[in-house]
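Re: that chain you flagged

S.,

Sorry for the slow reply, it's been a week of failed gels. I finally had a moment to sit down with the sequence you sent. For the record, here it is as I used it:
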Amino acid sequence: MLFDNQYEQQRIQKAEQLRALGVNPYPHNITRDTTAAQFFREYAYVTGSEEKRDETKRVTLSGRIKFLRLMGKAAFAKIEDESGIVQIYVARDNLPEGFYNDVFKKLIEVGDIITVEGFPFVTKTGELSLHVTKLELAAKSIKPLPEKFHGLQDKELRYRQRYLDLIMNRDVKEIFKTRSKIVSITRRFFEEKGFLEVETPMMHPIAGGANARPFITHHNALDVERYLRIAPELYLKRLIVGGFEAVFEINRNFRNEGMDLTHNPEFTMLEFYWAYHNYEDLMRLTEELFEKLLDELDLPTKLPYGDLEIDISTPFKKIAWRDSLTEIGGVPEMIIDDRALMIKHLKEDGIEVDENLSVAKLQEELFDAYVEPKLINPTFITHYPVELSPLARRSDENPEIAERFEFFVAGKEIANGFNELNDPLDQYSRFKKQIEAKNAGDDEAHAMDEDYVQALGYGMAPTAGEGIGIDRLAMLLTNQHSIRDVILFPAMRPQKNESNQINQDEEE
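Prediction finished late last night. Pasting the structure tokens below so you have them in one place:
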């Protein structure tokens, strides 16, 4: 049962007492004319005035009570809105007769949301505050807030009850405000570059555009299975075929995979496609985007990230995939093309590996183990094997190499981009190889999308495309080390009572 502990029951009783006194604990049409930030900005002059008050002004503030100290005939409280915290002074003799003793002292408490009217003044300790002449309850809090000295520190509870996390931790609000700014700045950046923002389907008849396991749902009216999209890539490139030459989308992707510090089953991606440009242009554009973000967020080029300091100054480092294995990962050159030696090297370091993997897949294991964790400063890794790049164009100089890069910062992949494969016959052949891999047990291999191949058959202009993970970008720019700290409502394992309810629902 909800609200069944003694403290919640006491608050429910207080709500009933308020009703009995003719005070609605949940009124509507409550208005204010000033935020906390505006109050400090507009009435800062009072601090320097001789009287230390301005009774000619009437200010209305609203906020949640975060602190309350009763002192007989008067009280100090602090109320918080989205923009900040203001101290208020409430005196018995400034309120209607009986209100202070019968309502405020007995029935209003920390956690309640109130609206107050009064004038600005400065306390003896020099704090700009509001002297209250009118007070209204805006919403009664039934659940007590966590104890103020320890706050809300339990990470599990913070993620499950993000609303409580936001109430108790102002710095969390700032993280999500910054995330919102990152998305807004990114959107304007691409619009100013002439890109068109578009929306593509979230439910796909074929799961494609990335190597990942999809979520599967059922469309009742059509009686068909649909897949929550793992990537918008194939639809965005259909738009390039149709004649749009620069498109982008910022939206959710869904991948039915594990959760860790950098993975959530639903996440936000920016994907963009640019006709008559190549992956070198994309790398320059990525550098420009970072310059724009640092400038508008007023961040330094040397960013703290945990114990690291990351140099975000451009141009960013570029190194070929194969060279990175030896020069950064320290992998001996002699083993890179030898399956048996790669397997032996990995196992000697205690890394479990499927001995049936191809040479390219084993190289990928080496990269993940020895190179990626060392890519601290922004680095473009280029010239990937074609086998690992089923949608990327082959290099004209070396058909085994794809014209592709991945972008890493702080040991994490942030972006992936390449010259798009626009040869429909080559694409069809690669899809068939992916089908073979899927049939051999690779759950993440691409499915065959004949309509996409058909679209390429009409001709797609030379195009480059890139995807940037917004969540990981937000982690970097806000110095957060878990993706859950930059997603308002991250995926969580069901709690025991939730699991029981699910079972009961299924039985019914």
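What I noticed first: Residues 168-315+424-505 form a domain with the BirA Bifunctional Protein; domain 2 fold (CATH 3.30.930.10).

Talk soon,
D.
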